[in-house]
Structures are given as C-alpha cells and as structure tokens.
C-alpha cells in the first residue's frame, strides 16, 4: 500500500515541478465602480437619460494595487513520518517505526500561484533490532535533520481553501544523538549519500491576508544510503504528514498602477456629435456638444475591463466595456459609441368644431401647424381625430361666415386628449341682461358681477375678436339724456373689463340710448329687457360717436341694489 501511495505522489509532484504560496494573496483589484448616480443603467435601457451638469474628469488618486506577490513568508510545521521502501527498490528491511518531525520554513511568494521556501527541521525515529519486534520508548534514538528547498504551486486561486502541489530537493543527514560532535560527524561525511528529492500535495486555508494554516503529505526518496548514515534498516524513502502555519511578514511594496487615457466620440445614427455624459469606472466627463468628442485621463490600468456608461437627453442610455493597458498611457484607448433615440409613442387628440354661441356643430376646415403642417377635414358633425408625434402644435379653424380661431395644444408621449374649438359668427351679438346701474347713473351695481363675468369669459375665450360694448336704455326720460347715459354705462363696462385684463384696443364703447328696444317699454319686464349691455363682434375697432364729456360720468364702485321703478334707466 505504501508503495502505491508513494508512486502516485511522486508522479504528481514531478509532473508539476512548481508550487504554491503558503500565504493568502490579495484578490486582483476590480475596476473602480461608477460613481453615483446614476445608478448604473441597463444596456439598451428604454428611458431617456437626464442631462447632467458638466463634470471635469476626477484626477486619479495614487491608488495602490496588490501585485499578488513579493511576500516574505515565515512558518513552521509539525507531523509524523515513516521510513518505507520505494516502489523500485527491493530487499529493504523495515526496522523503523513512526517518528516525529518538525520544520521551520522561510519563503518568498512570487505571485498568486508560485512561491519557494527553504525548510530545516528535526526528526526523531525509533528503530528495532529485528523486523516485527516490539519496541519501547528507549529505542527512539535515531535523529534526522531534513533540509530542503521546496517549490509550491497553487492549483486553485481561491481566497480560503486552496490545494497546492509541492516539488522538493534537499539533504537528510542521520545521527544517533543531538550533541555537537554527533551532528558534526553527520554533516562532515559525503552528503551526496544523504540527498533526498520528492514532492507532495497540500491544502491551505487562509484566515486573512497575513495568516494561513496548511495540511501536507510528502514523499522523499534518498537513493542508495551509505552505511554510515546512522540507520539500522535498509529503507530508502520516507513519507511525512504534517500540519503547520505560515505568516506573511512583509512585502517588497505595493505597486502604483499606470494611468491611462480613454477618448472617443459619441454620435447619433446620422454621425452627428451629441452632448452626452460619459462615465468610465468612477471617472466622468462630458462630450463637446459640437463634435461629441470626449477624453478622460488618469484612468488606472487594471486587469479587468472598465464598465462604460453613456447618457444623452432624448437618447437611450448605453453601456459598454473598455479595456486599458500600459500602451494607453501614451496612446489613448479609443471607444466610439452611437446612441439610439428614445422611441416615440404618438399621442392622440380628438375634438369638435362648434358655433361658440349656440353649440351647433360646424363643418370647418382645419390647418395643423407644428413639427409637420397638414390640412384636416372635419365631418358634418364637426368632429376630428388626429394621431401626432409628441410636440407643440397649433390648429387654425376656418368656417364660412365665422371668424378664424387658433387653438394651441401640446402632445405628450402616448397621451390622449380632447379639444373643442368654438367659432364666432361675423357680426355676432351677445346680449347680457341684468347688468344694472344706479338710477340715472353709470355706477355698476354689485349684483351685476355674475353677468359681467359671463361677458368677460366670451372675450377671454376668443382673444382674436374685437367687440363693441353697446349700452341700451328704456324710453323713460328724454332721448338725449338716454343716449348720453347709455354711452356712459357702456364706458363703465369697458373700464370694468380693462380692470380684469382685457386689452383696451380690442373694445369700443357706444351708447344707443332708447333707439333699439327689444321689448315693449310699456311694461316693467319689457323695460328691464331694454336696459341691457350687448357685445357686437366687429371686423375692426372704430372710435365711438362724439358725446359731450360733461354728460359722461366716471364709473364708480358698485352700490347696493334698489328696487325697479318706472323711472329706472
């Protein structure tokens, strides 16, 4: 059984001929993560990127990156050993039993996979005078002093448990004691007869970057031993099993990474440069709005590629990777990207064209102006429906015998809205009753406010029309006085509308006195209907007919209402 195990270990060790470090090594550094924000966008994210304020590339701090090597190691191990015959040696007589052996180790780690160490140890073996003869503690008198150089190779570079292979060469002098003369005799002979070589396997567990523990199994072959080597048997190989610890004392220093430059151009599909934000790792820069060019300096050279994020208003954010090497310290790494526009979802607008006064549908003609201009037909019911790309539009409505009207609206992404357009007939007249004044005066009474508000709404809804504010009275009083009074009352209404924000150049006041009755002046109800204010739609505003200024009275604040009398104007 020993022979089979020994042959397997030798073949495994000699095939690799290299070894692994006995201390944990730092993980290779990852590229710096993108800063803030933007939470990293997914590739081909369907949301448009918000425009960011321009940021200058952050100067790279003197970051340090572990080289994974350069570590000075110190450790020790303790285990058991057993002399055996090698598979290709016959005739050996086993006169030894299991012994104890311990080593002190000093080593150097070249990198994450490879290290070398020097071992010097001390072992104590027992011997027997004949095979299968019982032994006692007094027979453990043979001393071995193993000295070797080991090369170790880590098979799996994992942060905790990691197996490794061992290749070894050295000497193993024998003696029968530990006094100075005995040891001198052991080392003064022909040491070639005490040379050993072999290998083994081990398993390392890293507690942290400074300390690790390991378990090893090793096989050493000494060849033809000299008669003076102190052994009483004829075995020519030894197997060892041991446990130990290793510590990283110090390293030759951590390397500063080289700083590279990344540049490129961000464009749309027509190759037009875009004003965009470019993030490489934790470094951000803005492109030139005119050309789309960008450049980021002081990007540390690391093994893994950097994540790259590009965002521009109105375009889908895009991610990619960029690899920087030492060549990019002098020659920038070039990364060009083309962004796709945000997909547009058309919105809809449905509406109708109506007579503003009566609400009757109109078969009007519509002209749409915006990102595109088109003429739209309206059916007999005055209805229309449009599907439009997002943007700002205005629509001009025309109908025979009516004033043109323009309505403005905004289409948003995928939004549906309604629009009603009311047209006013040319020379249309709106009559507003119950606009009352103090008796014989142009002072607007408080209860007239609701009716005046309706008049104001007509002018606000139709900013394109010019109007005549006409005052009318009943026949109580002289025609001359009624004419002057109606003019003053019309002027008072104009003043009230001006105070509410209606432009003066859209209105003209005119008094008609009792010349245009709409009801019988013989009844109280008829006289009330004749005392009215009308809006007459005009093609243009003309000045009112001359009246004597001394007959016009300035409008004053509303007064409490008084009951209607036969003399009320």
Give the tags.
29 strands; Immunoglobulin-like; mainly beta; Porin; 4-stranded mixed beta sheet; disordered C terminus; 5 helices; 8-stranded antiparallel barrel; rod-shaped; 569 residues; disordered N terminus
Task: Describe the 3D structure.
This protein is mainly beta and 569 residues long. It folds into four domains: 2-24 and 66-251, Porin, CATH 2.40.160; 30-64 and 257-339, Sandwich (Immunoglobulin-like); 347-423, Sandwich (Immunoglobulin-like); 429-551, 2-Layer Sandwich (60s Ribosomal Protein L30, Chain: A). The protein has five helices and 29 strands. It has helices at residues 2-16, 180-188, 449-461, 479-499, 524-530; strands at 71-84, 99-109, 114-125, 142-144, 147-154, 161-171, 174-175, 195-206, 211-221, 237-251, 259-267, 277-280, 283-286, 293-300, 306-311, 318-322, 333-334, 337-338, 347-355, 365-369, 374-377, 383-388, 391-398, 405-411, 416-423, 429-432, 466-472, 507-511, 532-538. The strands form six sheets. An eight-stranded antiparallel β-barrel has the order 1-2-3-5-6-8-9-10. Strands 11, 14, 17 and 18 form a four-stranded mixed beta sheet that branches. A four-stranded antiparallel beta sheet has the order 13-12-15-16, with no helix packed on it. β23 and β24 form a beta hairpin. The longest helix is centred in the last third of the chain and has 21 residues, at 479-499. The radius of gyration is 52 Å and the shape is rod-shaped. It starts with a helix and ends in a 31-residue tail after the last strand. Residues 1-68, 226-232 and 546-569 have low confidence and may be disordered.
